[in-house]
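Protocol step 4 of 6: structure prediction from sequence.
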Amino acid sequence: MSRKAVVLLSGGLDSATALAMARDEGFECYTLSFDYGQRHRAELLASERVSAAHGAAAHKVVKLDLRTIGGSALTDDAIDVPEEETQGIPVTYVPARNTVFLSIALGWAEVLGAQDIFVGVNAVDYSGYPDCRPAYIDAFERMANLATKAGVEGNKLSIRAPLMDMTKAEIVERGTELGVDYALTVSCYQADEAGAACGRCDSCRLRAEGFAQAGLADPTVYA
């Protein structure tokens, strides 16, 4: 019988690769996406496509409204998405986003009897978000095992971040080996309704550099 895993799936390049890696390990995958008021809603359709392509056992979209607190270019239309490299933590950081997402994933994992949660965070070629670092993932895993029935009964929960130490090029190469169709994914912070990318934001830049460094064709559709 396959082990179950909950996989956080944004619809972008990294999370699609994390899903493929979970499947390659033999997990029965339950994919979880969030409609949180993000500017780039085309990623929700992308997450459905990616989930179906990789044979997920179920795909769930949880609706949240992080626009009610704002504080990010992704959840507040009054804050522009930067189109040049910025110093420090960029305005595309969404306050506490990964903590909120992982907490809901943790709840679903308990319901499913899954002991593994996969998340596509990366601390090499990334935007500098504090909730994408190894120390954060380790701390959340400790909390998860303290705060849940599963954890206190000895069914250890693991937060799996298989991309953490990989460059974007390495992620693209690994995903390609595992059959990920990156044409299904959307990474752009301000993609249009059809999923066409701006080609200028931080996420677009990192994605394009990854394909270029890997020597692979970039299937991204640009506006």
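Step 5 (inspection) to follow. The CA atoms of residues 115 and 157 lie 5 Å apart.
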